[in-house]
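Hi everyone,

Forwarding the result from last night's run.
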Amino acid sequence: MPQALAAVLLEPGKPMVIETIELDEPQQGEVLVRMKAAGVCHSDWHVIAGDLPMPMPLVLGHEGAGVVEAVGPGVSSVRVGDAVWPIWRSSCGRCDFCQSGRPALCDLGTAMRFTGLMPDGKTRMRRQNGQPIHHYAGVSTFSSLSVMPEAAVVRIEPPVDWQQAALISCGVITGVGAVTHAAQVPAASTVAVFGCGGIGLNIIQGARLVGARQIIAVDNVAAKERFARQLGATDFVHADGHSDPVAAVRALCGGQGCDFTFEAVGLAQSVEWAFDSLRKGGTCVVSGIARQDARPGINANQLVYGQKTLKGTLYGHMRPRVDLERLMALARAGRLDLDGLLTKTWPLEQINEAYASLLRGEVARSLIVWP
């Protein structure tokens, strides 16, 4: 029976504990992945803080890269030794959403996200005392070994840079995709990005990639300006609580507002700011994960008289099985700055410190890495 070192969340509001856990061998249609790097993402923090209820105990982590160590019966898309990306929204490939090119909306991934179980309704992890441990998004990358459905992994073409691959698997695909696929921002557009965390910084990269002429970064942490400008921002607004970020953004756009705005924080207020910062005919795209009870207040008449558009995006409207490798090709060609994204790496044993650093705004992106 495989054993792994994992960060286990026993209850919301408490630090994760590092434990040796036991895993089942991969079952029909499953793979066992040895993680090489895992992203420290704010989305997991919502579960840690209790904003998004999940069954406990739980091994979090949804972003990363690793190598297939074993495969169960019936697995055909990957082999032992293959480098893989975990997909935090598995897709069946057969439903209407999958067939129409929107695999992130597949009910398979949705069910795994909220139940913490594998598709057969069971878990493959347990504590030393026999207590079952729930999976997170079907992948649980905060464990040195993790059992995942075959539908939750995508093969990475060699050569593989584990840290770059891990960054691409969530933050990059979601942020860049929000620009290129969800909003379809044309060249020479004006853009404002509310929130300069892992998703927001990649929205900035995406806007630079498509040739936006003005990219305004907005954040309540002044230190984020350095990261934002490095990745393509032309302007920075410090939303320090004493000024009006909407007025500041609109002023930078000649008083009219921006063509496109993006919310990458997950707060009702920042959704309102992003929507109100649009010019007539503009589009606001929301990618931030919010509390379940978040209810932004939107001026409905602006949807009509201003012909504004408000939309959400999951996985940046991208198709991970196709677009992850395309993004890696852009990175290899030097068109995506992945080195500029990564501020710090941590061992698994320091995962709580990693999240404290994230919340203080000290990092652009950080990773848990294994030797």
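The chain has a mean pLDDT of 95.

Cheers,
N.
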